[in-house]
Task: structure prediction
Amino acid sequence: MSVKIVERKPLTLAERTYIPQIVGGLKTTWKHLVRPKETMEYPEQRPAIPPRYRGVPTLVRDPHGREKCVSCQLCEFVCPPKAIRITPGEIPPDSATAHVEKGPQAFDIDMLRCIYCGMCEEVCPEEAIVLQNQFSMSGYSRDEMINHKDRLYELGGTLPDKHLKWDKKKAAEEHGNAH
Amino acid sequence: MIAPAKSDLVTVNVDGKEIAVPKGTNVIEAARLVGVDVPYYCYHPKLTVVGNCRMCLIEMGMPAVDPVSKAPIMDPVTGKQKINWIPRPQIGCATNASPGLHIRTNTPQIKDCREGVMEFLLINHPLDCPICDQAGECKLQEQSTGYGRGYSRFIEQKNVKPKRTQLGPRVTLDDERCILCSRCIRFCKEIAKDDVLGFVDRGSYSTLTCYPGKALANNYSLNTVDICPVGALTSTDFRFKMRVWFLKQTNSIDTESSVGANTVVWSREGVIYRITPRRNDEVNDTWLADSARDLYKPVRAADRLGSPLVSGSAATGEVAMAKAAEFLKSSAGSVAVVGSGRSSVEEQFLTRKLATALQASTHLVSRTGEGDKLLISADRNPNVRGALVIGLIAQLPKSTLGELGAAIDAGRVKAVVSVGEDLAAAGLTTAQLAKVAIVYLGTHANATTAAAKVVLPTLMTFEKNGTFVNQQFRLQKFFKAVPGPTGAVEDVAVLARLVAGCGGAAVAGEINTLWTTIAAEVPALQTVTFANLPETGLLLDATPWATLPFVEGETLHYKPAAQPASS
Result:
């Protein structure tokens, strides 16, 4: 194996003064000093959440305040990490939504297990469970990290409903079909 | 040698596949035998055929013959006999196999027919699957996926019919979901003999209803829920409790009476949600009494025994079993063993072993009630015949323990082992119970546990494996569906420990190993192992006990032998 010896070139005068290098470096520094900031002052400042963002799963009400979940338990079935646990129950006959018959007695989502995959939202036949823009969950204990039904509705709020199928159902029931 | 074809077999051709079936077999069953699925709603193998759902439409043809000479007409293209196809579809459920019958289920016409029937059925169906208890086991769901059009053309208003009707104490009716198959009506009329259901109104207003002033209250009403192909009839008890796709199915046996109806126990995470019948054409067909479906409720009762007790205070299982063995061994020779007709064959075998080790007398308590001529017999113990087969008893038990009471009064019995029998309920007085040291193996608290020296909590039928012998001397097995409560130990394990502790030969406290011992010692069971016992049970030879005056009257698939004149 042969060795080729490369001769080191002598430094020019400009290089020996170091000034062009210092100026070049300072140029980069100044450029970044005046450029707009990439980071933000979280949590005082919050990022803009794009639409269809998959945040914390929540339960929503329809525009008339009816809880949309009918506890069909499909989300519980489809949930890959088994984070969802529902206790189904019957809506009492004296309730205004008695014609829906079924609603959740308890609805728990364990946010320590949730992987934010959005399959619960995809599978829901009533459009009742929605992953919205809330992305930060924290708590001091494991119990605090389980979202119960009331918390889920508080997080979810009300969303518009194009179909209002249960209202139509009730109207048909009241109208009847004379024969 | 080729066996001559049985005269009652006929060859039919289903979608090009030939099969020999008994003459008169209906086309749905014949197609099932060659693996061709003919969808249906109203047909049920154990009910009469009405053919009103029109889902099982098939194309049917017969080999062509010359009308005059009756000579077969051959097809020159295939060289086989020509088939004359009926141009219009026929219903499969009401078409019986006849020689040379040809059936097609995969033609465009049949596909169209099925799509049309599905579309009509779904016109007034509410599509409320998210709140319907039938979802997951619904024929309408399955067949609209398999044979439906896939989208709806119906834009008019759907019919409104009564919802949430209580047909009886246990059955809820949603008329909008009903597809008018009339299975429930036929069941009530033909099987339950309580003809209370019927259709009123006409056309698309047809509505299932109960006869005015009557209720669907017979003890077989929940079978209508089982056979309802949609969610129209639902169980009030199971309503909105759990979706069926979460439930684990375990085969079990009904312990309500000596009929031994085959059941399926549905559980999730150690909690039982419902019990439904399992088809056994030799025992219960596809039916089950309503009362048998409530038997899981004591599993989580408040009075369930959880911890072993020695003289009324909690102890560990080890200590309690050692104490029990000590008591019994010290009074060997003056011990009585009260077995149970509710124990499994394995437990009765070990009970006999325990009695032999202690030179004890054995007793059994009978429970009788009125049979309903269907699936509840007069003998309310599920396994009295097991005790006979295994040799625990030689005569039929009496309803009270009079002999044992007399022996206690005379001072001949100092200690009593009771395997799940409440001695107070079986006729022993409080004074008699106080005189003897009682070792009680059982599941729930009662007067005997209060008086017992040692209480060993054991498991219920749903929490262990085992076998019962029913009234036909059919050996049937049941499986563990849910784990037992903390502190309770499997009966055979406790009994095996007691046998060993009382000086008997060591026996296995585990079902599969135990069966090798049982097979070796009991001649009637010498070929049986727990694993090889068929799902539908094994019929044992009943002749050694043919002369005993059994209390059962006639029930479904059971006729009592003629009683000896002396009894």
Remarks:
- The mean pLDDT of chain A is 92.
- The first strand of chain A starts at residue 57 and ends at 59.
